[in-house]
Amino acid sequence: MDITINILLTIATAATPLLIAAIGELVVERSGVLNLGVEGMMIMGAVGGFGAGYLTGSPWIGLLAAIVVGALFSLLFAVMTLSLATNQVATGLSLTLLGLGLSGMIGTSFVGQPGVRLPNLDIPVLTDIPVVGKLIFGQDPVFYISIALTAAVMWFLFKTRTGLTLRSIGDSHTSAHALGIKVIRYRYLAVIFGGACAGLAGGHLSLVYTPQWVENMSAGRGWIALALVVFASWRPWRVLAGAYIFGAVWIGQLHAQAFGIPVPSQFLSSLPYLATVVVLVLISRNKRLTMMNTPASLGQPFVPDR
Amino acid sequence: MRIELVKRPQRSALFSVLSPFIAFALTIVAGGIMFALLGVNPFSAFEIYFVEPISQLWQLHELAIKAAPLILIAVGLSVCYKANIWNIGAEGQFVFGAIFGSIIPVMFPGFEGPLVLPLMLLLGMLGGALYASIPALLKTRFSTNEILTSLMLVYVAQLFLDWMVRGPWRDPQGHGFPQTIQFGDWAVLPQLMPDDGRANWGFVFALVAAVAIWLMMSRMLKGFEVRVLGSSPRAGRFAGFGFNKMVFFCFLLSGALAGLAGISEVSGAIGQLQPVISPGYGFTAIIVAFLGRLNPLGIVAAGLVLALTYLGGEAVQSALGISDKVARVFQGMLLFFVLGCDTLIHYRIRLIGLALTKPNGAAKLDAAPKLEEAR
Q1: What's the mean per-residue pLDDT of chain B?
Q2: 3-state secondary structure at position B350
Q3: A269 — contact with chain B (CB < 8 Å)?
Q4: Shortest CA gap A143–chain B (Å)
Q5: Is A291's Cβ below 8 Å from some Cβ in B?
Q6: Mean pLDDT of B265-285
Q7: CA within 20 to 30 Å of B160's CA: B37, B75, B152, B237, which one?
Q8: Which among A222, A228, A233, A242 is positioned nearest to A93, based on CA atoms?
Q9: Which of residues 17-76 of A touch B (CB under 8 A)?
Q10: Would the CA dihedral through B232, B237, B240, B241 be positive or negative?
């Protein structure tokens, strides 16, 4: 029983950064912008979060720093693609390349340093409830943020007027512009929100998941988050499900390696990436589903005319 | 302050030539600020970064060694990107090219003769092309997004290489080091001018590939097809150009070139397989392709510039104790500025609200037509 609970807990910890980054990107893509820089923003959040936590000794300041760094880094992308109308695919790629380089440079002095970890929630009595106590009341704070964030984004996108406006921009920026909606302003906010989420996800990696700084520690999670958005066909609750499936794959291969099953560890390590490919194929085979849900103006640059 | 883009009536010939140079200048300025922040005198840092690594003949050879894979991969990618097909997994195709090409020297070390090298190179191209055909197949059969699949396969390829050199292909006399046996003499790519430096035939392959692709893109129907399908898939369909065929063509071509780069690097510069064979050439080549404005001849120049950023990174690391990650930062900044400057080709940029202190939207609407008339 204890082992099951522990595995479930580690799955939740592995799924949380995927979920947060993917939820952020979902909002960005719903506004019609494709930001391929998730991996770069995430790793910047990780190094920023670790650095701030390490220097101040407070993991909370670290977490805040991760969010701010992610948001600021995404601003770079926003200025390029929204104000200068550059190619979104290429700009997103360059954001990732720059983020990987910059984080490596900033993090040189952090390598091997002990980090600080966000403490898990511990409520007397409640956390001690057998079986479910730890699952519901004993996880790290970011886990609760991730669940709240998913619910909030779901409510925002589908139950508020602003959310409807955002989705309309994603489906047709020209029509939205003709209706007097400030397309560029909405998109700026969406991109920055996505950046803050990616930063938070990175902060979770370096302040909760493995509280230390390792170069390239995001290990492709940003890209998996991007794939999750497609897999979820741009629906928040499916992102939640997808993130937990991937969390399970990630943890499953780690446990399999630890148990020493007679398969080379490299093959097990490649499972999350292969699973991403397989899942993408399965979902894109269903053309009607993807066609119906893909924001129609996703990835197309928009220059407002006067 | 607000940035506003005004569409030019036609693309600016001036800026399409100038934009890479402006981008490079901006990178230098930003890099100078970065060096200053790191507490280093920017001018001496730049001398160490950009001048010293190419001040001697043997260093130019090192530049050619770094530039060769970048150019080979980037010319292939430029065709993809012209066709609006996004292969970003060249790093994985590079690795598989290296693995396929190494089959002969690792598994048949007894096989010697002048046939060895051509066969290795062919196998390398085959390996890269086969690995690139996976995202192509998934895109054409299931319309799966090629960006994500090609990238995911990079991680898989790196892990596969790691397993090969630690497992089945490990040199039994290698003292446990994760590496294959040293390639035999016939399996090593010859050096061009062994008296002056290490540069090998890989650089020649890169130049030949660049010229060949340039001829294809500018003088042949295939190049026209690529450009038409890239700028307007609909027009391409009416002209009878098949999109799926184009996806395969682009992926196989760029994969084969990346594979050739992989086996050339292993056979020429390294001499054996090891867990890591590339400092991110497949990703840096994306920058090379854009800096070269997706033109094969521009890519040759861009490849040399980006190769210099690698050498400069190593130089500042040893001379100033700054992390060699500085090279990646330079490369990333360069791509950013190139993309930003390319906007100047199609648009005039106007800053609004910089001098005027009227944040009020209505005032701006009033002012704008008057500006138009005044011009």
Answers
A1: 86
A2: strand
A3: yes
A4: 26
A5: no
A6: 90
A7: B75
A8: A222
A9: 36, 76
A10: positive
Per-residue pLDDT for A279 more than 70?
A: yes
Chain B residue nearest residue A227, CA to CA: B148
Position A304 in a domain: no
Distance from CA of A247 to the nearest CA of B (A): 16
pLDDT tens by residue, B283-338:
999 989 988 889 999 999 999 999 998 888 888 888 887 777 888 888 889 888 98
A303 domain residue, yes or no: no
Q: Which of helix, strand or coil describes residue B5?
A: strand
What is the number of domains present in chain A?
Answer: 1
Q: Provide the residue range defining the domain that includes A155.
A: 2-293
Question: CA B287: distance to chain centroid?
Answer: 5
User: What confidence score (pLDDT) does residue B218 get?
Assistant: 87
pLDDT-derived band at B95 (thresholds 50, 70, 90) equals: very high
Q: Percentage of chain B surpassing pLDDT 70?
A: 94
Residues 6+ apart with CB under 8 A from A89: A34, A36, A299, B86, B147
pLDDT at B229 over 70: yes
**Could you tell me if A159 lies within 8 Å of chain B, comparing CB atoms?**
no
Q: What are phi and psi of B144, to 5 degrees?
A: -80, 140
pLDDT in tens, A138-175: 788 899 999 999 999 999 999 999 999 999 999 998 88
The token pair that represents B258 in the structure block: 């990346």
From the list B144, B160, B287, which residue is nearest A266 (CB)?
Answer: B160
Highest mean pLDDT among A92-106, B10-24, B356-370: A92-106
Q: Do B328 and A104 touch (CB under 8 A)?
A: yes
Q: Which pLDDT score is estimated for A1?
A: 62
DSSP string, chain A: -HHHHHHHHHHHHHHHHHHHHHHHHHHHHHTT---TTHHHHHHHHHHHHHHHHHHHS-HHHHHHHHHHHHHHHHHHHHIIIIIS---HHHHHHHHHHHHHHHHHHHGGGGTT-----PPPP--TTTTTSTTHHHHHHSS-HHHHHHHHHHHHHHHHHHHSHHHHHHHHHHH-HHHHHHTT--HHHHHHHHHHHHHHHHHHHHHHIIIIIS-S--TTTTTTHHHHHHHHHHHTTT-HHHHHHHHHHHHHHHHHHHHHHHHT-SS-HHHHHTHHHHHHHHHHHHHHH-HHHHHHHS-TTTT-------
Domain layout of chain B by residue ranges: 69-170+187-307
Query: ipTM for the complex?
Result: 0.87
Q: Do A85 and B347 touch (CB under 8 A)?
A: yes
In a domain, A305, yes or no: no
Q: Answer whether residue A298 is part of any domain.
A: no
The CATH number that applies at residue A22 is: 1.10.3470
Per-position DSSP letters for B12-52, written without gaps between them: -HHHHHHHHHHHHHHHHHHHHHHHHHTTS-HHHHHIIIIIG
**pLDDT level of residue B236 (50, 70, 90 thresholds):** confident
Which residue would you say has higher pLDDT here, A34 or B236?
A34
Average pLDDT over residues A4-17: 88
Cα gap A27→B293, rounded to integer Å = 32
Q: What pLDDT, on the 0 to 100 scale, is given for residue B353?
A: 66
CB A142 within 8 A of CB A83: no
Residues B250-265 have a mean pLDDT of: 95
Which whole number is the average pLDDT over B122-137?
A: 95
